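W.,

You were right to be curious about this one. When I first looked at the sequence I had no strong expectations either way, so I just let the prediction run and decided to look at it fresh. Below is the sequence, 230 residues in total, followed by the output.
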Amino acid sequence: MNSDENPAIQPQPPALPNEAIQPGAPDFVETPDVTPTPPPHEPLPIWLFIICGFALFMTGSSFAGFGSFGRGLYDQGPGVPLATSKGQEAAASTDPMVLGKKVYSNNCANCHQATGVGQPGSYPSLVNSEWVLGSKERLVAILLHGIQGPLNVSGATFGTQQMPGWAVKTDDQLAQVMTYIRASWGNAGDAVKPEEVTAARTKFASQSAAYNEADLLKIAPNNEAIGAKK
């Protein structure tokens, strides 16, 4: 039986697209608003707490001065405490060998080489040289006023280059460089004191020209052979 046969039954109009489901409709169920649940937090590993605690302890002890964890803890270089490093620098600043090497490097190494072996035919070797290891007074005379003319060194003759004098250097500087060359490259000479240089400078104050070999040989005491140690 259709609607034409039963007037009490009326056909429903077709639903519009936007009105397919409306509140109150039989097929509509309103879902209440639900707050999304955040993902669970993973607990921090225990080792991270240990490291953070140790770092805080070290920082605090650095300022508090707790024994070996005191203020000097972060003042260390690669394995050397700052106090020790400063002590070594202070010692080096007064060591005549260190200071003498600087004087030598700046004034002598160009001719006699950093190794002290010199240049054959031009500049004599300072290694085991009788002029270096002999009379200190004579060595001071050489450094103050220089050398001219031929010079026999360890059986070899050098005469093409004249050595200038260093009278402008202080007694301390001359003592330092003399100490250095007398104790380097296998040389076993003893140190030279500044007062020894002062005495020699006073003794040879009247010398104006560079020395020759004959004059230098007169400086050494008659009972001291060239190369002999005091």
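Here's what jumped out at me. The chain has two domains: 47-93, 95-219. And, maybe more interesting for your project: The mean pLDDT is 77.

Coffee later to discuss?

I.
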